[in-house]
Automatic annotation (TrEMBL):
<dbReference type="GO" id="GO:0008168">
    <property type="term" value="F:methyltransferase activity"/>
</dbReference>
<feature type="domain" description="Methyltransferase">
    <location>
        <begin position="45"/>
        <end position="135"/>
    </location>
</feature>
<keyword id="KW-0489">Methyltransferase</keyword>
<dbReference type="InterPro" id="IPR029063">
    <property type="entry name" value="SAM-dependent_MTases_sf"/>
</dbReference>
<dbReference type="Pfam" id="PF13649">
    <property type="entry name" value="Methyltransf_25"/>
</dbReference>
<dbReference type="InterPro" id="IPR041698">
    <property type="entry name" value="Methyltransf_25"/>
</dbReference>
<keyword id="KW-0808">Transferase</keyword>
<protein>
    <submittedName>
        <fullName>Class I SAM-dependent DNA methyltransferase</fullName>
    </submittedName>
</protein>
<dbReference type="GO" id="GO:0032259">
    <property type="term" value="P:methylation"/>
</dbReference>
């Protein structure tokens, strides 16, 4: 996965510079997450799997003090280039480079999708570890079952990579959240729109 995103980072940043790919309902969930975080006074948010930083910028514009982390050094380089006022670090979601209780919010925006079912528990355990008591977590992902080869999407940019994503149901992710000690606050599952292949799901939880 790291090699694939290192390969496509520059084109990814150019193709997805902001939140134009998100539907209004998607952003409404992010807005609810940002409001929940900032209402508590502690505005520190971890954008876990931040990519080129587009959601980090969106959260920062809504009053969050954002730290981004991503497995791909090239993606982090793009994030630093395009958002020089924000902080970005190279790191793994399964071993976050932060102490316990560090953040009031953790965003997992389509950053669990390349991890198979057996690895999901570790991601949510780490996200919960760095989340302070009463903090909030928002996770977004393609809803459904099975895997999808997304390598073809990058051939239009001249990249030959290997990259799969895994679909999960909202109920499956709710189980992961509960197992990590989080309480689900609300969820949204919407139907595929435009060129999307899958339904999209978003779960907001609190520690």
């Amino acid at each position: 996965m790291r090699r694939a995103y290192d390969t496509v980072a520059k084109d990814y940043a150019a193709y997805l510079p902001d939140t134009r790919a998100e539907a209004p309902l998607d952003l409404a969930m992010v807005d609810a997450f940002a409001a929940a975080v900032t209402s508590g006074g502690d505005t520190r948010v971890l954008d876990a799997g931040c990519g080129a930083g587009r959601m980090s910028r969106y959260l920062a514009d809504r009053g969050c003090r954002v730290q981004g982390v991503d497995l791909s050094p090239s993606m982090v380089a793009m994030a630093r280039r395009d958002h020089p006022d924000l902080a970005f670090t190279v790191g793994s979601l399964t071993e976050l480079p932060y102490p316990d209780d560090q953040f009031a919010g953790v965003l997992l925006w389509y950053s669990i999708i390349h991890t198979p079912p057996a690895g999901q528990a570790r991601i949510f355990a780490e996200a919960t570890r760095v989340l302070r008591p009463a903090g909030h977590l928002l996770v977004g992902f393609q809803a459904g079952e099975g895997t999808h080869d997304v390598s073809g999407a990058y051939r239009q940019f001249g990249h030959e990579i290997e990259l799969e994503r895994y679909r999960y149901t909202a109920d499956e992710i709710a189980v992961q959240l509960a197992a990590a000690g989080l309480r689900e606050v609300c969820r949204l599952v919407r139907r595929a729109q435009g060129r999307e292949r899958d339904d999209q799901a978003f779960l907001l939880a609190t520690a």
